[in-house]
Specification:
- There is one protein chain.
- By secondary structure, the chain is mainly alpha-helical.
- It has one domain (9-96).
- Helix content is 58%, strand content 0%.
- It has five helices and no strands.
- The protein has helices at residues 9-41, 57-67, 73-77, 82-88, 90-96.
- Helix 4 (82-88) packs across helix 5 (90-96).
- The relative contact order is 0.13.
- The model has no long low-confidence stretch (mean pLDDT 85).
């Protein structure tokens, strides 16, 4: 019976680095996905209108406002970038921020 292929030392190191890179990326993205899922459970669907959720400045401002106690969709929509409002419409953006947030809904 033939043994398994065992690559050279350098190929093993490259494989280990590639696995580590995938694991780090997965660990970085997972909290962003959990936060988005939490917001969607509260009927806040703003992530449908923005890309790059972890790096989106408008989304971070909205989350800070929600944490600060703001619940009015119009007030939450003020920090949204004008380009996003123009592309999707102010009504759509404001409607996506009209959620129901209770202390039992939020794990953060």
């Amino acid at each position: 019976m033939r043994g398994s292929f065992v690559p050279d030392g350098i190929l093993q190191q490259i494989s280990q680095l590639a696995r580590q890179c995938r694991r780090l990326t997965k660990n970085r993205v997972r909290p962003e996905q959990q936060l988005d899922n939490q917001l969607q459970r509260c009927n806040i669907r703003f992530s449908n209108y923005v890309s790059g959720q972890g790096n989106n400045v408008s989304l971070r401002k909205i989350i800070r406002a929600i944490i600060g106690g703001e619940r009015d969709p119009v007030a939450l929509g003020r920090p949204v970038h004008g380009r996003t409002k123009n592309r999707h419409g102010v009504q759509a953006v404001t409607g996506s921020l009209d959620g129901v947030i209770n202390s039992t809904d939020v794990d953060w």
